[in-house]
Amino acid sequence: MITNSIYGEYAEYLDMVLQDLEKRFKNFDDYVLNETGEHGFEHIITRIKSDESMREKCQRKGLPETAHSALSELKDAIGMRIVTSFIDDIYLMIKYIKSFDNCEVIEEIDYIKHAKPNGYRSYHLILAVKTDYPDVNGNTPGTYYVEIQLRTIAMDTWASLEHKIRYKKDIPSQELISSELKRCADELASCDLSMQTIRSLINKAVG
Ligand code: 0O2
């Protein structure tokens, strides 16, 4: 098959990997809901990195624009963002993800315990998923990589708004804006902690 996509003949497998994982998370949510009466997470957003963004990232990283760079050197062609209500839900999800039998967490960064200097908070994982499909290194079963970001609603709100305004160039008072953004991130983080505490108190009170 002739294709102009940077993902080449492997493009067709990316959605399948994503859908399989999404199904597992939905099953987990049903299980948690059944056990606790509460959802395991709020919602999931998925994306395959666009051809244009992946080519731009290859250029930025000094890599050739090939399927090998996109699917083996770089590991975020397939992306999932899991948004939870509370901080504890994030760590419960991570425990669940680590229990998958055909997946291995090969990288993890806790930007919640160690926020970025600008205030960004989220938990990032790179998952190596063993699949039934061929991969770009000539293996069948092949390995596909998935970047998973886990955040609370508050962290997601901040990241979405910051992402929207970050790309506006020539902003006056850049320093003031950065410090205000950081202040907002810290206030939201403090709310997350308070909401977590309130939830724990309620759960303890009702048994
Ligand atoms: P998209 O479309 O969201 O994937 P790099 O990927 O090289 O730029 P690195 O070090 O590999 O960076 O990964 P990093 O910084 O740990 O995480 C990359 C992704 O996390 C970003 O993807 C964002 O989704 C999110 N992210 C990281 N830092 C910030 C931040 O300060 N603000 C916001 N809003 N999001 C952030 P991309 O590349 O933006 O694209």
Which ligands occur here?
ligand 0O2
Oligomer: single chain
Counting helices, strands and paired strands, the structural category is: alpha+beta
Low-pLDDT segments = none
Helix content range: 40-55%
Percent in strands:
15-25%
Treating each run of at least 4 consecutive H or I residues as one helix, how many helices? 6
The secondary-structure element order is HEHHEHEEEHH
Spatial gap, N to C terminus:
59 Å
Physical arrangement of strands within the biggest beta sheet: 1-2-5-4-3
What's the number of extended β-strand segments?
5
Mean pLDDT: 93
- How would you describe the shape? flat
Q: Rg from C-alpha positions?
A: 19 Å
Give the biggest sheet. 5 strands, mixed
Could you walk me through the main structural features you see in this protein, from its secondary elements to its overall organization?
With 207 residues, this protein is α+β, with helices and mostly antiparallel strands. 49% of the residues lie in helices and 19% in strands. The protein contains 6 helices and 5 strands; from the N terminus they run αβααβαβββαα. It has helices at residues 11-36, 51-60, 67-73, 87-98, 153-166, 174-205; strands spanning 43-48, 78-84, 103-110, 123-130, 143-152. Strands 1-2-5-4-3 form a 5-stranded mixed sheet. The chain is flat and about 55 Å long. 24% of the residues are buried. Bound molecules: ligand 0O2. Ligand 0O2 is lined by residues 76, 79, 109, 116, 118, 120, 124, 159, 162-163.
